[in-house]
Write a structure and sequence with these properties.
With about 425 residues, the chain is an alpha/beta fold. Helices cover about 30% and strands about 15% of the residues.
Amino acid sequence: MNECPCESWRWAENERFIHDIVEAYESSYPNLKTHNPEYPTPESLKSVIRYGNIEFDGDFSEDSPGSKLIRELILDDRPGKLFITAWGGASTIARALYTIQRDFEFNNEWPEIRDKINRKVVLLPSGDQDNTIATFIRPNWPDIEIRQFRQSPNYGYVAQLNASTENAPFLTSTWMKENISNQGEFGELYRVWGDGKQMVVGDKVDYFGMAGYTNEQLKEMGYFVWMPVQEKGSWLGEGDNHTVMNMLGNGLRAFEKGYYGGWGGRMVSPSATSTVAGMSSSGSAEDMAAALSSQNRTQSNLKDFPNYFPEAQRDFAARLKWSVTPNFQDANHAPLVKIEGPLTLLAAPGQKIKLHADSYDPDGDDVTIQWYQTPISGSETSVSFSTSLGNSTEFTIPEDAKTGQEIHVIASAKDVTDSPLTSYQRVVVQINGN
């Protein structure tokens, strides 16, 4: 954009976006915990807010409160995986890993520490927006798992471009006003097209809040117009959502393995690069818009993966409703579904598998259960269900199924309401035979 060299294009002292959101959460917490008692306390969220390595793009030359916290979590002895998202650059993560390597690499316990970190840490970046993954993390920590996703619902800025007939209604100003913008403090904070807001005054990339201007007029005003102007009040995407959507406890178990897939899509090869990241450092506005539009078309045309966008948007709307609703009975809640027996099975070619699921709706609504096989990356084999609707179904493992292949079956439970909510359970059938 011909704006550099720059003294800084990082955070100013009065920028506190996360604090604003957590304060809105604190105000809404009494309502939220009525609808789901597992919501964390506002105090617990405030206690872990830190500023990271934000002096300049890709700079991890100094420790920061954020890098120290990440280092502490990486080195602790809590069991299980540690998932770390990066919605911008990974410089704060890079600094944490750098200091660990610096302090332990030449000690006798280094192999044990390194192996523990490789088993424990999972990085969920939205591209490599400051190049620290490519220049430091991958060369020095090649065995850390890095998950990048494709075939995800388009939660991004370009969601309106080529949106399917099924998804388009959830992007309109009418839907956003009714379900998001008018829902209390969270709704006020959530940005939409033409809302008059700008995250940083004078940011030439952030023209989304400016209403009444054409693309050409915005360009003449000096803005970097990489996404065509949309209807005032309509969806303004959060392009990094896919990094966290598979972490949600909706029953899809998508966090367990990158290739499982869920509301955030499926994993791509760790060597794949992000189109958005690549265009963030070079290329014209037209190049970026074309690349994003092409990416959107590709995602829209991949028919084998479930379209989870409507379910995710309705879930989003329900949680915003909870935030302003003090009584449990005045809002909708997702049904529960439970498949009998273990959720990971071993099976041989030719074996018949019978599955039964029970459901419960906390609001007393009727519930429909649907069974389907969800595709995974590279090791699946197809099956046919005796029925796709109802509490029970069965299928037979194909005779030509190979050892190591997997069949992933989803039981989807949806309440019968005007704005249905969905929950899931996944059964993973591992082939142990031929």
